[in-house]
Design brief:
TIM Barrel; 10 helices; globular; Glyco_hydro_26; transmembrane
Length: 462
C-alpha cells in the first residue's frame, strides 16, 4: 500500500509541476506577445507617398499616364462571349481583351482578328501546362512568334503566369523558369517585336515571387493577379471579406513599379460563393468601387487592368467552382463597375510599341510599408533607395543616406506592420519594416515634404 501511495504522490507531483510549467509558459507567451505588440508592431493606415520625377524611359506600348481598360469574356455565355456586348453593357470601350492559350496550341489568329475588329489589342495568357520541358527553341515556338508578328498590332504576351504558387506545372524550379523565360523572350524579340512580354504572378504567396524574376532586361511589363473573395480555400474558417484589394497589390507594386509598368492582369470580385451559398452584390460592388476608384490616384504606375468576367461556379474545373465574378448579369455590380471606369484616366486605346524608349515625367507612389509613431512618419528603406535612388550606407547604429554631395545620418526603426490579410485560421501576416523617418531624412537632402491627410508629397528641391 505504501508503495502504491508513493507512486500516486509522484504522479500528482509530476502533474502539478507540469501544470505549473504550462502556466508559466502561457504567462511568458502572453508577456512576450504584449511586449511584441507594444514595441514591435505598428498600426497600419492608408498612407501613400507620392513623388514626381522626370526622365523615366517608357516601356513598349506604355502610356505616359492613364490605365488601359481590359477584360476577359470568353467564359461568359450570358453575353455570348462577346467583347462588343461587354463594351455595351459596361458603357465603355475596352482597350484589350485576353485569351488563355495552352502551349502547343496554334496561334489564335481568328480570335486576334476579332479583337482587332472591336478596336482593341490582344492579350494572350500563354501557358506551358505540361511543364517547362516542353518549351523549346523549335519550329512550333518560332511559327507562333511569326504568326504573332503578322497581327500588326501590339500583343501583350503573359507567359507562364502565377508561377509563384504550387498549382501550375511550371512552378517549383525558379532557375529553370528564368532560363526558359529568357529563351522565349529572345525568340519573340527577334521574330515578333510587336509582342510585349508580361511577367505576371498571383498576389500570394509573396515569399517566392522575386526568385522567379528573370531580370529587367527580359521583362517589358510586370503583372499581378488579384481577387476579392469572402473566403479563402472554400472554408468559412478562412474569412477574407475584410481584405482591401489594394493591399494585395503592394508587394509587387513597391518592388517593381520604379522600373516597369504594372498590369493587373486579372481582377475579379465575387458576388456569390458556394462556401456560404449567399448572394452578396454589395460586397462585389464595394470592392470594385474601392479597387477601380483608387488605382489612378494611389497606384499611378499601374498602366492596365483586366476584369475577369466569369462565373467560376459553372466552369469545367471542379476545383474552381467556388466564386461568381461575373458583372454583366448583376445590375448593382455592373453599375459599380461602369461608374468606376468612367474616369478619364481609364484608356480605351493602346499605344503603339514604338513608345518604348521615349522619356516622360512620371508620378511614383509607395504604399503599405509606412507608419506613424510618436508623431513621426516612417517609410521602409526601399522607398529611399529604390524609388528616390538615394545611396544608403551603414554608420554604426545609424544610417547614412547620400544624394549628390549632400548626406544625412538618421537612426533606423525596426518594426512589423500588418500586410492587410491573414494567414490561415486568422493568423495575421506581418511584414518586417526597416524604416527611416521621412521628414528628418529628406529635408536635409533638399526635398520638400507636405502631408495632406494620408498623402505624403515628396518633391525634390530646386
Amino acid at each position: 500500500m505504501l508503495k502504491d501511495s508513493n507512486k500516486l504522490h509522484r504522479r500528482r507531483s509530476i502533474t502539478l509541476w507540469t501544470l505549473c510549467v504550462l502556466v508559466m509558459l502561457m504567462q511568458l507567451s502572453m508577456f512576450g506577445y504584449v511586449g511584441y505588440k507594444k514595441y514591435r508592431v505598428v498600426e497600419k493606415e492608408d498612407w501613400t507617398i507620392q513623388t514626381t520625377m522626370p526622365g523615366y524611359t517608357l516601356a513598349k506600348s506604355e502610356p505616359a499616364s492613364g490605365i488601359y481598360l481590359g477584360g476577359y469574356v470568353l467564359q461568359n455565355p450570358a453575353i455570348a462571349f462577346s467583347m462588343k456586348t461587354f463594351n455595351e453593357r459596361t458603357g465603355r470601350q475596352h482597350a484589350s481583351f485576353f485569351k488563355y492559350v495552352g502551349y502547343g496550341k496554334e496561334f489564335p489568329t481568328k480570335w486576334v482578328e476579332q479583337v482587332k475588329s472591336t478596336g482593341a489589342v490582344p492579350h494572350i495568357a500563354f501557358e506551358p501546362n505540361n511543364g517547362l520541358a516542353e518549351v523549346k527553341d523549335d519550329e512550333y515556338l518560332q511559327k507562333f512568334a511569326d504568326e504573332a508578328n503578322k497581327a500588326g498590332v501590339p500583343i501583350f504576351m503573359r507567359f507562364a503566369s502565377e508561377m509563384n504558387g504550387t498549382w501550375t506545372n511550371y512552378s517549383g524550379d525558379p532557375e529553370q523558369y528564368k532560363q526558359t523565360w529568357k529563351m522565349v523572350h529572345r525568340i519573340f524579340s527577334e521574330r515578333a517585336p510587336n509582342i510585349i512580354m508580361v511577367w505576371a504572378v498571383l498576389s500570394l504567396p509573396e515569399e517566392t515571387i522575386e526568385s522567379y524574376y528573370p531580370g529587367d532586361d527580359y521583362v517589358d511589363w510586370v503583372g499581378v493577379n488579384v481577387y476579392s473573395v469572402k473566403y479563402h480555400n472554400d472554408s468559412r474558417l478562412h474569412e477574407a471579406d475584410f481584405e482591401d484589394p489594394l493591399d494585395l497589390l503592394n508587394f509587387v507594386y513597391n518592388r517593381f513599379s520604379r522600373e516597369k509598368p504594372i498590369m493587373v492582369s486579372e481582377y475579379g470580385a465575387t458576388h456569390y460563393t458556394v462556401t456560404d451559398d449567399l448572394t452578396d452584390n454589395a460586397f462585389a460592388a464595394e470592392k470594385i468601387k474601392r479597387f477601380y476608384g483608387e488605382l489612378p490616384d494611389k497606384y499611378p504606375r499601374i498602366k492596365a487592368v483586366f476584369y475577369f468576367d466569369v462565373n467560376n461556379t459553372t466552369e469545367y474545373n471542379e476545383k474552381r467552382r467556388i466564386n461568381d465574378y461575373s458583372i454583366t448579369t448583376e445590375q448593382e455590380v455592373l453599375a459599380a463597375y461602369s461608374s468606376a471606369i468612367s474616369r478619364p484616366e481609364y484608356l480605351t486605346e493602346v499605344e503603339p510599341v514604338q513608345t518604348q524608349g521615349a522619356e516622360a515625367e512620371q508620378r511614383f507612389t509607395y504604399r503599405g510599408l509606412i507608419y506613424k509613431e510618436a508623431g513621426t512618419l516612417y517609410a521602409d528603406k526601399r522607398f529611399f533607395t529604390d524609388v528616390l535612388g538615394l545611396k544608403l550606407q551603414a554608420e554604426g547604429s545609424s544610417e547614412k543616406l547620400v544624394s549628390g554631395k549632400a548626406a544625412v545620418e538618421v537612426k533606423a526603426s525596426h518594426k512589423r506592420i500588418w500586410a492587410g490579410y491573414n494567414y490561415f485560421n486568422y493568423i495575421p501576416r506581418y511584414r518586417s519594416v526597416d524604416a527611416l523617418p521621412i521628414v528628418e531624412t529628406l529635408e536635409p537632402l533638399g526635398y520638400r515634404i507636405e502631408v495632406n491627410g494620408t498623402d505624403i508629397i515628396v518633391e525634390p528641391g530646386a
